[in-house]
Inverse folding.
């Protein structure tokens, strides 16, 4: 089944470019933070959620795009610089000049609608994507992101482990 996220993404060439183009290998930033490539990120989300890799990819894409609606364009740009290109594209697609105000529960609902996952799966998935994101980007960038998302998102990521 093709989810709404994949169907919309297929309409643009960016999806194919980020899926078929060269992948970044694991690398270290100037701050010494280990950065994982998109494939590793999605595989980790799949393992932790019990979803298929395709479902985890759709979930990851939808989560990042949804969270981009919630943060400032400057914060989105900072996040983009620390993500592999395919994941950065999801943030780019979700970035707007108008910062939307919604909490963790609304983000879960949005992700569930976009991925066709049950709300419980989407909740576990959003928490997991945030936890993997914490491991994949610098501590400073993660803290900056969480400061814009708010307390309920911080509590959600802490409960993910």
């Amino acid at each position: 089944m093709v989810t709404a996220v994949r169907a919309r993404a297929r309409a643009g060439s960016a999806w194919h470019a980020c899926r078929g183009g060269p992948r970044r290998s694991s690398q270290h930033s100037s701050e010494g933070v280990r950065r994982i490539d998109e494939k590793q990120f999605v595989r980790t989300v799949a393992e932790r959620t019990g979803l298929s890799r395709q479902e985890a990819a759709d979930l990851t894409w939808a989560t990042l795009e949804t969270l981009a609606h919630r943060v400032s364009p400057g914060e989105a740009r900072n996040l983009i610089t620390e993500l592999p290109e395919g994941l950065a594209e999801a943030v780019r697609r979700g970035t707007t000049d108008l910062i939307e105000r919604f909490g963790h529960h609304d983000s879960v609902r949005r992700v569930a609608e976009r991925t066709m996952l049950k709300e419980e799966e989407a909740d576990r998935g959003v928490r997991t994507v945030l936890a993997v994101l914490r491991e994949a980007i610098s501590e400073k960038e993660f803290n900056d992101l969480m400061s814009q998302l708010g307390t309920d998102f911080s509590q959600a990521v802490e409960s993910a482990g």
Q: What stands out?
A: The first strand starts at residue 27 and ends at 28. The chain has ten helices and two strands.
